[in-house]
């Protein structure tokens, strides 16, 4: 199996490195070529466009930031679609809207190629440590072919039958995460205005029934003013926006989701590239 | 030390039992006398009013449902205040508004008695297992006197200096809990409308960075339609309401808190006495 | 000019009648033929499908309830598209999503026909009284051709250049209307819980700086429990949902819009077909 | 009748001037004496404290900014209470919380004096033009005594029996106003992001069923970036906060109120002293 990998952002480079370290040769494309300097081995070939990656690979992994970035890679001159043919498998790790994932599936299928959506749960550190959770939907055979590679990247894989179930589940997961994150941020903001010692507040929150490792990590980072991006603020907002649109389409009553998404939107101008826990700052400024 | 205990609700009876099991004799008052049938030993005396409990005890513990219930016990004919005198210690485990806790402190102090606010974190099961977390503020000496009893009820005690710091911290804790609970409920509601398998959704939520024991327990209960009250819905709403008022007084920007409180209010008519995880039902009905 | 008219709902039948009363012969299609009994004159021909209306008309007006209804009429077997040809003008009075309006424009243009989006402001009574406000965007020449008919239906016409500007403006208008409506409903609900005389409350609201005819009419209807549909609840929610999606796409911070839309969604199961002022009931139940 | 007037802010000075212009002599106190330069005639006496005003007057009008300002004037050394005696009438035009109004009533009654709450609807211009609406509750006899003065200040008076009904009604009025104001502001913000011509948007909003003079005035001011305070932003927020607390006490479901209050809170740091229509800016920054 010849393996392609497109997208060397925070997540993509960590995932590509885990494949490289396992001895898998990668055919790589990234918008900016410099990112190859961050790769763990030199067992890769860099191509000038997605079409060439597709032509030279049996499986092509994509890890891109949003619908637009995917569309640019897939459906432009020298894009992925031009290099597809019967039997190749496209695996999209990117979190995209459910409707776009369906759309991608249709485009790939038109080329007689196979498509899996495979959004991942987990940010920078789990990606580096091959501790992601992969949510996969699409052709079962293709899934079985790709699964050995998934195992090199993750601690767990969910197979969810039809597209866009994996997108749906990823969006629900991040809906819950975003609201939970804001719960912590609002609690800390109110605590600050009440002149409570925020370290004591965190200590308590980390001791009770809803203690969790995100509160522990993000709480510490907020208190030390450390907003290095593990999961960028703008991606958190993007995913909340996907959830808002799904809730609209399905007429689900999701008031907290709606208002957390609004709050995230409010801070986009100032915090988009730093970590999503900067919602703490967005509440305050 | 003679010990009084007033209030035998879900929490109070569990806590009183832990003291009784430890061999401590209790002077007890409860609005409805029948509740003594649930006590673990007969090493107690039941009194007909709070005044008598106060007169016969050095330390009086209160565990009541809200400001009004406390005021009725403390400040009515044959109420607690009438039985207080120099040196007695009143310990209020109830979660009340910060302003009422201050008010109680003033009233008790007027009788030359000592007052500790000591709201607890944890619901029915931790209360039964002496695994509560106690948040205590007020006179340091009184705290040191009472602390041995706290240890029989809890896994951890925070001492927070002045009143109403413990009330503040409890309210912040429950603010975060309430929003986090709604995060789960909204996620499950959207997932249901997306025809996802809710067991799979829970499995995922219990595997990621924000997995926590509340999600695990409440998620399972929601899916099995089990709303037996561990922490009653109306108490969750009451605490969210306290947080909303503090956020108003301190001008803290807490949009998710506000909207979660509204959502809880919406369901009061139908769900007040069952578990707070019935917010899942409130979103749907 | 031969004129077609498709859609005889609350709005469509009122508008068609104003054209009929002005002596204009109409080629009519409606899903349910019975609705022709409500027409003001018999100067019309009923056709069995939209294609036939298109073939027999130079201008075809559409007044349908949503994107799906439009798509059914336009783009199905014996649908409108099949009857279009060079020079015919399609005018869509329906309020649809901005993206669908763009999509309709593309489809009609593919047939070398012309397309105007022309959502209307005003509900049942203004429609009956030819007092609508028409918001029109699209080909200027087509607009000039159709404008004489617009004048028979409206007190005012805004021409807004390119599609989907008219859809945008209509959605913004209804965004403001929906929030304003909920402002009234929440005020009355709180007033009721405060035991104020709701007639006095309305009297005051109708006397101050923000007094408006919607408050006057809807307030009176709410107090008399009259929810006959002038502007159906489900259409109000649909338009709020359009606004939410636009706000998401443009990253506009619209917290009140989001939460009003959620509130409207909450009531869909019970109030969808009655008047949008039933939001007062939705807040309470 | 000797008349006192305490508080010469935006509203108070306009109201005092209408009494002065009518030939009524006023006994005046204001925190800053300079404000007397803005008075319309010199038919007044300035006193150094509220006690002296009370001692020298039969009726004392108060127009102050909030609960705290009232408490300072009424209940401090040389405060109003010290100068009250049997039969004097205190009329509070200030908008205060319902609970504080009740509290003021009790304090005044303890001095055997009479108390009316009389919050006004209308801002700077109606105050200047004696076009306010006065909402009055309290002792009926006192109301009849004071009513001739009310008529010199207002276009309309509502008498509402018992305290705090007038406070309640004023708070409901401003709840509806605040949400309606935000409806406009959010509509204009979304319209701007959609590149619509905001003058056209306003033109439309001023033509439809919910057209109102507040939209007309505030819309024009927003578009011309004119935020001179007619009704200060911080007072709008204060009143929304009062409504939020009432809704909490009465368990009224008011999601739009809650979220509009949050939005107003968010802007307090930047916009508190300018006009409440600066909520448009608060949404954007």
Automatic annotation (TrEMBL), chains A, B, C, D:
<dbReference type="Pfam" id="PF14833">
    <property type="entry name" value="NAD_binding_11"/>
</dbReference>
<dbReference type="InterPro" id="IPR013328">
    <property type="entry name" value="6PGD_dom2"/>
</dbReference>
<dbReference type="InterPro" id="IPR029154">
    <property type="entry name" value="HIBADH-like_NADP-bd"/>
</dbReference>
<keyword id="KW-0520">NAD</keyword>
<keyword id="KW-0560">Oxidoreductase</keyword>
<feature type="domain" description="3-hydroxyisobutyrate dehydrogenase-like NAD-binding">
    <location>
        <begin position="167"/>
        <end position="282"/>
    </location>
</feature>
<feature type="domain" description="6-phosphogluconate dehydrogenase NADP-binding">
    <location>
        <begin position="2"/>
        <end position="159"/>
    </location>
</feature>
<dbReference type="GO" id="GO:0051287">
    <property type="term" value="F:NAD binding"/>
</dbReference>
<dbReference type="GO" id="GO:0050661">
    <property type="term" value="F:NADP binding"/>
</dbReference>
<protein>
    <submittedName>
        <fullName>Glyoxylate/succinic semialdehyde reductase</fullName>
    </submittedName>
</protein>
<dbReference type="InterPro" id="IPR006115">
    <property type="entry name" value="6PGDH_NADP-bd"/>
</dbReference>
<feature type="active site">
    <location>
        <position position="170"/>
    </location>
</feature>
<dbReference type="InterPro" id="IPR008927">
    <property type="entry name" value="6-PGluconate_DH-like_C_sf"/>
</dbReference>
<dbReference type="InterPro" id="IPR036291">
    <property type="entry name" value="NAD(P)-bd_dom_sf"/>
</dbReference>
<dbReference type="InterPro" id="IPR015815">
    <property type="entry name" value="HIBADH-related"/>
</dbReference>
<dbReference type="GO" id="GO:0016491">
    <property type="term" value="F:oxidoreductase activity"/>
</dbReference>
<dbReference type="InterPro" id="IPR051265">
    <property type="entry name" value="HIBADH-related_NP60_sf"/>
</dbReference>
<dbReference type="Pfam" id="PF03446">
    <property type="entry name" value="NAD_binding_2"/>
</dbReference>
<dbReference type="InterPro" id="IPR002204">
    <property type="entry name" value="3-OH-isobutyrate_DH-rel_CS"/>
</dbReference>
<dbReference type="GO" id="GO:0016054">
    <property type="term" value="P:organic acid catabolic process"/>
</dbReference>
């Amino acid at each position: 199996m010849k393996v392609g990998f497109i997208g060397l952002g925070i997540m993509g480079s960590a995932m590509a490195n885990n494949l490289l370290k396992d001895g898998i040769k990668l055919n790589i494309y990234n918008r900016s070529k410099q990112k190859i300097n961050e790769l763990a081995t030199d067992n890769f070939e860099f191509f000038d466009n997605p079409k060439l990656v597709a032509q030279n690979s049996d499986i092509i992994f994509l890890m891109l930031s949003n619908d637009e970035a995917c569309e640019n890679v897939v459906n432009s001159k020298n894009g992925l679609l031009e290099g597809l043919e019967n039997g190749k498998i496209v695996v999209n790790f990117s979190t995209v809207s459910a409707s776009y994932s369906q759309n991608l599936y249709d485009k790939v299928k038109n080329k007689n190629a196979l498509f899996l959506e495979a959004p991942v749960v987990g940010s920078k550190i789990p990606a580096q440590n091959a501790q992601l959770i992969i949510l996969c939907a699409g052709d079962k055979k293709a899934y079985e072919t790709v699964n050995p590679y998934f195992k090199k990247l993750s601690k767990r894989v969910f197979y969810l039958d039809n597209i866009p179930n994996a997108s749906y589940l990823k969006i629900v997961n991040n809906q819950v995460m975003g609201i939970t994150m804001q719960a912590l941020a609002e609690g800390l903001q109110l605590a600050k205005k009440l002149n409570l010692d925020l370290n004591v507040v965190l200590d308590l929150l980390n001791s009770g029934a809803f203690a969790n490792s995100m509160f522990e990590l993000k709480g510490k980072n907020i208190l030390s003013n450390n907003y290095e991006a593990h999961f960028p603020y703008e991606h958190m907002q993007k995913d909340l926006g996907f959830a808002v649109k799904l809730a609209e389409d399905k007429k689900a009553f999701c008031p907290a989701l709606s208002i957390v998404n609004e709050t995230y939107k409010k801070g986009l101008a100032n915090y988009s590239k730093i970590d999503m826990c900067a919602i703490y700052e967005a509440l305050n400024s």
